Batch of 2 targets.
Target 1
Amino acid sequence: QVQLVESGGGLVKPGGSLRLPCAASGFTFSDYYMNWVRQAPGKGLEWIAYISGSGHTIYYADSVKGRFTISRDNAKDLLYLQMNSLRAQDTAVYFCARGVRSGWYFDYWGQGTLVAVSS
Amino acid sequence: EIVLTQSPATLSLSPGERATLSCRASQSVSAYLAWYQQKPGQAPRLLIYDASNRAPGIPARFSGSGSGTDFTLTIRSLEPEDFAVYYCQQRSNWPPGLTFGGGTKVEIK
């Protein structure tokens, strides 16, 4: 069955960096768009990044553009989110999600990993 | 950026009642709208895509309607497991991206 498992979350100081992997299984990873979505504590959902199956098409939300980088390793069935210059407002649970219908609807999600940015 | 406004913020209903949730877009999104259900401590679950298509495995009591700027998610007869937060989501072609609404919490009355 389809599984997405995020890891790599934790406590980081403002200005610091973190890389989140998302391990995919149960489907042909390279056939699917993938996304990162985050949710601040007690708040709603915010889409942050999109990558095509080949990795050639990438989009970001304005809130993370220039600081975060989405990438993928199709040989290892891994999705990544490299987060630099972290701010307190980046504190959230980060979900990876599989995209369908040109990648913009999310049919499977991971369980999420918590990133806390605090001094 | 297209803004999605969901109403009401909270809906208090009893099991067996009909739930009607609204999502309004700041400009037309055609039919590029989805609905998700999220329970505490869980990831969201896709219910409806392209405004009115049920995702695989979603019960028939969930239905979506609308196009342009006004959309509705209807839960025909609430089951105990339906009490949750519901989000709408739109996708835009330019600039490429998507946004979520602020959510509607369906709680037990």
Target 2
Amino acid sequence: KNQVEQSPQSLIILEGKNCTLQCNYTVSPFSNLRWYKQDTGRGPVSLTIMTFSENTKSNGRYTATLDADTKQSSLHITASQLSDSASYICVVSARTSYDKVIFGPGTSLSVIP
Amino acid sequence: NAGVTQTPKFRVLKTGQSMTLLCAQDMNHEYMYWYRQDPGMGLRLIHYSVGEGTTAKGEVPDGYNVSRLKKQNFLLGLESAAPSQTSVYFCASSYMVEQYFGPGTRLTVT
């Protein structure tokens, strides 16, 4: 069964600290993996997109890694800011299939001063 | 560019009532999607469209219908609303891999 799991479910960190969010998936055949940021009451916004051949991709203070062998990805946030408080969603797509896009349940991150 | 817009933003329906959610995009994207988001779960695909005049079922299509008469618009209809359809509905459009989401419609069915 195609699944995407994320951990932790929620996380609270102090402003300025780093954190790492995890994503494990069983989607096959793999096409790409995306990380989205969803602010409360808003739609998800793309942070990074990685294909099979990419191991790491950065977007400012956000760095995503992908291990296609173990089917794991992580999102590392450096020097967190209050505006990083949001839900972070891992999304995995199966190859060339518009409807095989599996969304993880998200990790809720709260950055406190 | 407005991107992806959705109307209405909020709606309360009684069981058995009908309504239509409108999604519009101004990016000339071929692909459009309707998702629902429920607490503790990932977004689930309801219906999608790969071009004007085409629609297809997603993971959870029961109780919903869609139409894509114009390329820029994707309508989601509920013919007879049920409490199980209480959710936040997101529309998205895409070119290649990148998906762009609307702000969502919060629907409550009592």
